[in-house]
Amino acid sequence: MKIAVRNFDNKKVREIELPDAVAAYPYREHLIHNVVQGYMAGLRAGTHKTKARGEVAGSGRKLWKQKGTGRARVGSVRSPLWRHGGTVHGPVPRDYSKSISVREKKNALRSALSRKLQESQVVVVESLAVPTPKTRELAGLLTKLGTDGKVLLVDRQDNQNLTLAARNHPRFKVVDARGVQVYDVVDRGWLVVSEEALGALIEVLTR
Q: Mean pLDDT of all residues in the chain?
């Protein structure tokens, strides 16, 4: 599959060939779902905690005798039935992460990129070296390229101007070519990638 390389004026500069291992990879929704679910689960802190009856403050003495008072029997002020008592079966700290293999992650990313290419939602530019770190100027350049909505920008990690220009915009996200996540690809309508970054990404996916 061939794809056009454009400049910031949205003019075609040249064409490059994409390997079938990426461009022609079949769409596997279930695989993408599993990888995205694993990614989102890994972001959860898992630090939630409630106190059981043995952990809340309060005396353990019996409040009144077992029989003869006409009241319901009670053993402790820390009982879950009482206000300020312990919680029954409450959440405890846990690890939510799922085990996803490297092969599954690569195949899911191939599948997501292939779908983006088929839907013509990938824009390859010869360079993402924006002249200034101004958000308004970056937004104007991306509008010229025909993108709208949420955009994932893929370039080198040391592209400081691009990082500064995009970080203040809620619809833009900048990632390094070797740090592209399936979640970011499917979450955003457009993928704008520099030619150099695309080469690095394809190198990772075709190993």
A: 91
